[in-house]
Design brief:
Layout lengths: L4 H12 L4 E7 L9 E8 L2 E6 L7 H7 L3 E4 L2 H12 L5 E4 H7 L7 H9 L19 H12 L1 H15 L2 H15 L21 H21 L3 H4 L2 H12 L14 H15 L19 H21 L3 H4 L2 H9 L3 H7 L2 H6 L4
Parallel strand pairs: 1-4, 4-5
Antiparallel strand pairs: 1-2, 2-3
């Protein structure tokens, strides 16, 4: 466990001279509104290390040691995003064992499933949703965290060898480069739509007005106590309350009985605000313009899909890895060379004969 700057510097020195490095991260998004990087797992030829990122250390020596190296991850999207958001770090190259397994046509690509398949080791999942901000970390959480990087290098070696045998290593490298690029882009929240939680489309205009106020109420409550919004009230309950209010039903039984009186009152105030919205100011439902069927585009989409499905069958991989339905539809509507380049990686373009 790395908790001091001196130990971190020693780790950074080891990483700098290491032939390979495996990395994972743990955060507290399931327990806090303001997500924090709580732990960084690092493995290299000299051993397995847990970096306590809450210990107040400056992480720059370790991040600098990562520079220029290919880092081994499993399912790197979240890890790359939180590292960039909290430290500004963007890796030079990544080997993602999840993507590698999918490109080999493996059905169960979860880390636990892959470790059990190749090494006969069963990894406990009990700590997956644990609060990683707690200190000291219990022994079972420490063991769980260590395992996340301990098996990454031998797993990557197995997958890499098979990718090379099948001539697909370049596919993985392109996918990982694309992943790094996408993870460096900040996802902006749209104030006009961010309150549309799952299920919002069933509501009337009056219900949407109430839902919007309830969502903002929940955000403020969650921020005030630094807890995830679902700890305040889950999405399903928000929808139910908004729906009942719009039909003038008694929604009070839907409010959790243990909710504190002040919070309960603020919820009621939010409902009242939503009820005061005039019909002309109801949130607008998205309008989908009705257009005549573009038979040529539909025919092109079918042709692209047929090629994609044939390739997926030939290589034994999920067809969506080659091109998603949305990508196919976009390409069918506009076969512009730049769009093809933007939506497809070189290996995908080659398979789809769109080079």
């Amino acid at each position: 466990m790395i908790t001091t700057s001196t130990d971190l510097q020693h780790l950074a020195d080891g990483v700098r001279h290491a032939a390979w490095v495996a990395v994972d991260t743990e955060a507290d998004s399931r327990h806090c509104y303001y997500e924090k990087l709580c732990l960084m797992q690092v493995s290299h030829p000299q051993g397995d290390y847990l970096v306590d990122t809450l210990a107040g250390m400056e992480l720059s020596p370790l991040l600098a040691a990562f520079g220029g190296k290919e880092l081994i991850f499993h399912g790197a999207d979240f890890d790359l995003r939180i590292l960039r958001r909290t430290t500004g770090f963007v890796p030079a190259a990544v080997f993602d064992t999840d993507i590698a397994a999918r490109l080999l046509g493996v059905q169960q690509t979860g880390f636990g499933a892959l470790v059990e398949k190749h090494f006969g080791v069963h990894l406990e999942k009990a700590s997956q949703k644990a609060d990683w901000a707690r200190r000291p970390l219990p022994e079972k959480m420490i063991k769980y965290a260590i395992a996340d990087t301990h098996y990454l290098k031998p797993l990557a070696d197995i997958l890499r060898a098979e990718l090379v045998r099948l001539g697909r290593l370049d596919w993985l490298q392109q996918c990982c480069a694309d992943l790094i690029e996408r993870s460096a882009v900040t996802r902006e929240r749209d104030p006009a739509t961010e309150w549309r939680v799952k299920g919002w489309a069933i509501l009337s205009g009056a219900g949407l007005a109430v839902l919007r106020e309830l969502w903002h109420w929940r955000e403020k409550e969650a921020q005030a106590v630094d807890r995830p919004p679902f700890h305040i009230l889950n999405n399903e309950r928000l929808i139910q309350i908004a729906d009942d209010v719009s039909y003038r039903k008694d929604f009070h039984p839907l409010i959790p009985p243990r909710m504190s009186p002040p919070r309960r009152q603020r919820l009621l105030d939010a409902v009242h605000l939503g009820q005061q919205v005039q019909p002309a100011d109801y949130p607008l439902m998205p309008k989908h313009a009705r257009t005549k069927p573009d038979w040529q585009a539909m025919r092109r989409a079918a042709e692209i899909k047929n090629v994609r499905d044939a390739c997926a069958k030939e290589f034994g991989i999920d067809a969506s890895l080659i091109a998603s339905r949305a990508t196919i539809e976009a390409l069918a509507r506009d076969h512009d060379r730049k769009l093809v380049s933007d939506l497809l990686m070189p290996w995908q373009r080659k398979l789809l004969k769109m080079e």
